[in-house]
Amino acid sequence: MSLTKIACIAALSLSAISSFICAGSAQAISFKVTTGIAAPDGKTDKGAFSEFTQLPGTTTIDFNNGQAPTTGFAKYSFENNSGTSSVRLDQWAPAGAKGEVNNNGKYLAVFNGDQVAIKLAKSLNYFGIDWGAISSGNVFSFYKGDTLIKSFTTEDVNPVAPIHASQHGGEGNGYLHFYSDSSKDIFNKIVITQAGGGGFESDNHSFHIGTGKFTGFDPKSVPEPSVTLGMLAVGGMFLRKRKNEKLQSVRQSH
Description:
By secondary structure, the chain is of the alpha+beta class. The chain has one domain: Jelly Rolls (Sandwich). It is built from three helices and twelve strands, in the order H-E-E-E-E-E-E-E-E-H-E-E-E-E-H. The chain has helices at residues 3-23, 154-157, 226-253; strands at residues 29-34, 58-61, 74-79, 86-88, 107-111, 115-132, 138-144, 147-153, 163-164, 172-180, 187-194, 199-209. Strands 1, 2, 3, 4, 5, 6, 7, 8, 9, 10, 11 and 12 form a twelve-stranded antiparallel sheet that branches. The radius of gyration is 20 Å and the shape is globular. The model is unreliable at 1-26 and 225-254 (pLDDT under 50).
């Protein structure tokens, strides 16, 4: 395959991913996927954390105490539970920001036909989740009271997952950022569902309270997915090499 063709493929793929990301901006709730970052204390053995972890108004639940909270700001409840969904520690824990396999922290697992409802004491304009071993049938649903605002499925998000972890057989991982585009899109309930086979593994949930006159969340400081940056770098490398070859050819002809 010629260098020009490879560069064109990289450029087209980059354009497609960028278009996919921007397409969400017109929706009631948008999302971006990144690799996430290390824990606030710098440790990399507890999965990936949100880039907004330390933003004022943000609360993070890491499940490392072995339980999903049932009191306080965010109340978790297992619904239609088959008895297999739980907070646990095993190889299917979401990977770290650089694909680290050593997530020694506990995480939330939801299995076939089950769902977890998260009822919130205040309305949010941002929800972040470290999403691991991405399987078909994973569904995120956002509500204001009993009114559904928006749902997202594996098919919406998996194509731009930036990490493919070896311990998960190459399945996608990434830190997923959901955010409200306006004051009409704030939410106070999140439902995490696994429909069909497989599982829904997540960790390090971050919540940001929607406050102020405009309660949409500004995601501008969230970097683009690393896969996009990687493809841009590869495309640039081939283009630079091709340019140098042309330059040398011109010099030799004179």
